[in-house]
Structures are given as C-alpha cells and as structure tokens.
Amino acid sequence: MPAAHFERLGRVAPGDRDIRPYMLATAPDERGLGYALLELADRVEHAADPLAALTLDRAVAEQPANDIRSVARLFTSELHDLPWYRDEEFWRRSKASP
C-alpha cells in the first residue's frame, strides 16, 4: 500500500472562532483519518491524565516513513512463494502500483 496518506492533529482555542475548544483530526483519505484517530486513542490509553494527553501546544502532522506499509501477499509455500519473494522486479512493480 502506498503511503500517500498523512494525519494532522490540532486544537482550536476558544478565541480562534468564538466557540469551545475542540480537537481537529484531518487526513486526505480514510486510512489517514484512521491513523489520526488511533493516535488520539493511544494518547488517552497510555496517559496518566487522559484529558491532558489531548491538550496540544501545537498542531501535529505526521506521515508514514515508508513508501510501502504492508504486504498483502501471504507466504505459504516455499516451493511456490520463494521465486516471487526473491524476485527484485516483483517488488519494484508492487511499489509502483496503488
């Protein structure tokens, strides 16, 4: 899967729009939004003070470090799967396709 998604977390202060503070999580696709929501859940789950964990001093923008985030092909048989696994051209083709 190409790593075209990214996530951005931010907090809008009351004076910014004359409304209560709220958390804003944005992404260009559903996968990126899923990662943004998982980041928020992770902050809450592992914090001593969950509410404080959601307080951001600045916006956070992240994107994957790797172009390929997973391999959606099972390696089940050495006889049948070892040839494609060792084929460098296979991995170049896979990286270029969405």
Give a short synopsis of this structure:
The chain is of the alpha+beta class and 98 residues long. The chain contains five helices and three strands, in the order βαβααβαα. The protein has a three-stranded antiparallel beta sheet.
The average pLDDT score comes to: 75
Number of beta-strand segments: 3
Number of helical stretches of at least 4 residues: 5
Number of discrete domains: 1
Order of helix and strand elements from N to C terminus = EHEHHEHH
- What would you call the structural class? alpha+beta
What is the CA-CA span between the terminal residues?
A: 6 Å
Helix coverage percent:
40-55%
Instruction: Give the strand order, joined by hyphens, for the main sheet.
Output: 2-1-3
Rg estimate, integer Å = 20 Å
- Gross morphology is elongated
Largest sheet, in brief, is: 3 strands, antiparallel
Poorly predicted spans: 1-5
From the structure provided, what is the oligomeric state, counting identical versus distinct chains?
Answer: single chain
Strand content: 5-15%
Structure commentary:
This protein has 98 residues and is an alpha+beta fold. The chain has one domain. Helices cover 44% and strands 14% of the residues. It contains five helices and three strands, in the order βαβααβαα. It has helices at residues 14-17, 30-46, 50-53, 78-86, 88-96, and strands at 7-12, 22-26, 60-62. Strands 2-1-3 form a three-stranded antiparallel sheet. It is elongated, with a radius of gyration of 20 Å. Residues 1-5 have low confidence and may be disordered.
